[in-house]
Design goal:
10 helices, hpI Integrase, Chain A, mainly alpha, 4 strands, two-stranded parallel sheet
Length: 198
């Protein structure tokens, strides 16, 4: 895989990060003391939350918590997200260095204000390119990448089974497993493998 290059002649599909590439990025962000970007990628990829919902988190929502309980902005449904141990460690590390107040936004811009969605999109694209994270050249980088990375990780952990699709359907609040399959690009991956075997 290579870092994404913009190609205006072909439509692109938002991709996901391979889990080892995500881990490499998180290490690079820690080494470079990029706490804000570290939180953004870690929360997005370890929880599967939508960017709009991550954007409204405060420190009291995540610090010293085992789960995040919130109303999804898109669906207005209540959702519970458990905070895995690797994410807790990142939250604690960032809290130590940033020293935020409980009511401070978790994701902030350079002025410590809640950023707009286009600013978050820019940060994600900039970070991926700056740290030379491998992305297929025909795929797009967007905020959905973080949620898709979570989904693909669950899909892989659960052995790429129907059970995994049903779990993800519930986690993503999708109305069918077919929507979840399309969202994660699973069908297109399977079709590509068939052609590669010929």
């Amino acid at each position: 895989m290579e870092t994404i290059l913009e190609n205006k002649s072909k439509p692109t599909v938002t991709t996901y990060l391979e889990w080892d590439e995500l881990q490499r990025l998180l290490v690079l962000l820690r080494w470079n003391k990029k706490w804000k970007q570290l939180l953004l990628f870690a929360i997005g990829c370890y929880t599967g939350m939508r960017i709009g919902d991550i954007r409204v988190l405060t420190w009291k929502d995540i610090f010293r918590q085992d789960k995040i309980i919130y109303l999804e902005g898109k669906t207005s449904k209540q959702r519970v997200v458990f905070i895995p141990i690797p994410l807790k460690k990142i939250i604690n590390l960032c809290h130590f260095y940033l020293q935020p107040k409980p009511d401070d936004w978790v994701i902030v811009n350079q002025n410590n204000e809640r950023p707009c969605l286009s600013s978050i999109e820019y940060t994600i694209k900039y970070t991926i390119r700056k740290y030379k994270i491998r992305i297929p050249p025909d795929k797009n980088i967007s905020a959905h990448m973080l949620r898709k990375t979570f989904g693909r990780r669950v899909w892989d952990i659960e052995g790429q089974t129907d059970k995994a699709l049903i779990l993800l359907m519930d986690m993503f609040n999708h109305s069918s497993s077919g929507i979840t399959r399309r969202y994660l690009g699973i069908r297109s991956d399977e079709m590509e493998k068939i052609y590669l075997k010929m």
